[in-house]
Amino acid sequence: MIAVEARNIAHHVGQFALQNINLTFPKGQVTAIVGPNGSGKSTFLKIVSQLLNLHEGYMFVHNKPIQHYKQKEFAQILSMLPQSKQALPDLTVEELISFGRYPYKGLFQQQSSNKDKEIVQWAMNITGTTKHRERMFHQLSGGEQQKVRIAMALAQKTDIILLDEPTTFLDLSHQLDVMEMLQQINIDYGITIIMVLHDLQQAATYCHNMIAMKQGRVAQVGQPKQILTPQFLKEVYDIEACIKFEEDFPIIIPKRRGGKKDDHRNKQVQAY
Q1: What is the C-alpha separation between 182 and 150, in angstroms, rounded?
Q2: Mutual orientation of helices 172-189 and 142-154 as an angle, nearest 10°?
Q3: Where are the alpha helices (DSSP H) in the chain?
Q4: CA–CA separation, 149 vs 97, rounded Å?
Q5: Of 39, 60, 41, 88, nearest to 236 (Cα)?
Q6: d(C-alpha 19, C-alpha 12), whole Å
Q7: How far is it, in rounded angstroms, from Cα 250 to Cα 225?
Q8: 124, 113, 175: which is closest to 152 by C-alpha?
Q9: How far is the C-alpha of 272 from the C-alpha of 250, rounded, in Å?
Q10: Inter-residue contact 166 to 195 (CB < 8 Å)
């Protein structure tokens, strides 16, 4: 089954353009969108989440055109966690996560219902943030803040979650912690996860599918072990590298781009 489908998508921003994007995202799987900076990854994610309007083509969520959804209805199906380092209001962790229940509240409803509170507690439990519920969000470390932001997205209780570079700004330990948590959420609850990643090793290790973009176009699509090759790195990233897999984990060793500079340096060392 397909959770999200893009047909002939095009979007123009100044001199940059997404062109002829045709993609499908399987329901209940984790898909990574990778590629060089400026290739259109985040732009595409914003189109899926309706943060940007379509210029050309069709986008479907659960086989329904996204423009046919009412705003709150769409927010009950798909949640988006953008890349952000913006300061948030002075809120406790629990208060911030509770914002994820907004799509389910009536026009004049201010207080959280018992169901809202149960779902917020569930989101805190599976992200390991319950212990911080009464702490101020800004007092947490970067890794803990990201878990809280993910908990807020989970509190929307959607079938699909989009994440724009969820491990950016985090140290290696917290990067792996977040990726393992997202993988476990997918396994336990079958939530479709689509995320932009820069780390190819994370994408290959934790995702079922990989989509590579370059210069506003789809370069390659497939399972990580199938497409992650030296030729892939050359075509998408313009680098030479060796790749081998240890079980599901890829080891990528870039070749130096020394060229004549390295040769000159070597001669200087020998002369000295």
Answers
A1: 9
A2: 20
A3: 41-48, 71-75, 93-98, 114-127, 142-154, 172-189, 200-206, 224-227, 230-237, 260-271
A4: 7
A5: 39
A6: 9
A7: 8
A8: 124
A9: 40
A10: yes
Encoded tokens for 256:
């130096």
Strand partners, 205: none
Token pair for 125: 């439990």
- A 10 A CB-CB count for 111 gives 7
Residue 194, Cβ neighbours under 10 Å: how many? Answer: 27
| Residues 260, 266, 269, 272, Cα dihedral to 10° | -70
**Which tokens go with 134?**
């009464």
One pLDDT digit (tens) per residue for the chain, 272 residues: 999 999 999 999 888 999 999 999 999 999 999 999 999 999 999 999 999 998 999 999 999 999 999 999 999 999 999 987 666 778 999 999 999 999 998 655 667 789 999 999 999 999 999 999 999 999 999 999 999 999 999 999 999 999 999 998 899 999 999 999 999 999 999 999 999 999 999 999 999 999 999 999 999 999 999 999 999 999 999 999 999 888 778 899 888 765 554 455 444 444 43
| Dihedrals phi, psi of 177, to nearest 5 degrees | -60, -45
What residues form DSSP beta bridges with 79? 161
The tokens describing 217, both together, are 């176009």
- Amino acid in position 99: F
- Measured at the CA of 46, the angle between CA 183 and CA 58, to 5 degrees, comes to 105
Q: Which of 137, 51, 123 is nearest to 92 (CA)?
A: 137
Query: How is 44-90 classified by DSSP, letter by letter?
Result: HHHHHTTSS--SEEEEEETTEEGGGS-HHHHHTTEEEE--------S
